[in-house]
Known about the structure:
Number of helices: 5
Number of domains: 2
Order of helices and strands: EEEEEEEEEEHEHEHEEHEEEEEEEEEH
Strand content: 25-35%
CATH topology of the largest domain: Spore Coat Polysaccharide Biosynthesis Protein SpsA, Chain A
CATH class of the largest domain: Alpha Beta
Low-confidence stretches: none
Helix content: 10-25%
Amino acid sequence: QTAQLLRxxxxxxxxxxxxxEHRTKRKEVRIIAIMQRSERVKLHCHLHxxxxxHVSSAAVRIHRDHFRFRFGTADILCPxxxxxxxxxxxxxxxxxxxxxxxxxxxxxxxxQNVGNQIEQTTFPYNFTCCFSAMxxxxxxxxxxxxxxxxxxxxVNRVVVYKTNCSADVQRVLDHYSEKGLVEVIPWSLSKxxxxxxxxxxxxxxxxxxxxxxxxxxNDCLYRFMYRSRYVALHDPDELILPQTVGSWMELLPLLKxxxxxxxxxxxxxxxxxxxFELPPPKPNALPAVDQWQNVSGVNIxxxxxxEPFIPRRRQHNAKIIVNPxxxxxxxxxxxxxxxxxxIWVDRKLARMYHIKPRGPPKHKExxxxxxxxxxxxxxxxxxxxxxxxxxTGLLPEAT
Length: 399
């Protein structure tokens, strides 16, 4: 199912997707929506079940994380009547419109997660990674490197909420889609709202934060709630790397043993500024990758130095891996409604590396700290990246 993005007549509210909620005392259909926070409108649910239409009042919960934009993510909750085990479709209307009961089929959503009422112990995917809000994206090399790294870490599925990208990036996405790793969700929110390109209205005015990143992340959480054992929420320029083992498959049992199961695991961010390309300390050496010079994008293996870590600011830009069935709502850098409290993962066990431009240097070259963890994957990463670039026609076969 794609994200449909339907507008409610008589309202500025946009609906993205609908999921059956099994975990609450009262069975509900949860519709992930985008709402103008100041708007006060009474909404009605039209639930189709067993050839009957059930109409009820909707409950609305606007998420507290909206970064001071006028629009924010919301949950519209529709009660499921007793005796309805498998609701099929749902529509939401405004009580302010006279024709609110018409055009049910055109304005309805197929309800997902209906067949997941029994607790599961096996899943199609162990790890799913959600890339939200891909827009104007041209960074081919880093995307391929990240997707190959994620596979080394144990990721089976990567979901890309895509607004637009270059032709070469699309070629890469098509390659991984055919391979079965990537699922692209068209994300056309800019057709409906003036989307901001930044994290705050002061940086980039608009109706909603960063191309609607938060509703996309929540949709991904619910979309893979019963398809993936764990879900990771981070971007293509971020990598969560274990420090004592080689993969997430090995890391998660360590985290469960140390912190408990069904927690949201929060990983400290470490900035790797792309403005610096420094050689590693001897006897280490950068691998020769001259063949990548004509490929668009960033070579993450050339950026191995991080800014000094500041413990009091560790909550800034952190990212998470969660059991999605233990979460009701998420934001960008943490969980809003977990069943259990979130924990910070000891940076000696795992940490996140964020490799991106940082603007005017905040630190001098001698203040940066060498991080060689990524280089440890290079012997496997380089041939894997070469193979993909050749298969997609971005690198000559003879290279």
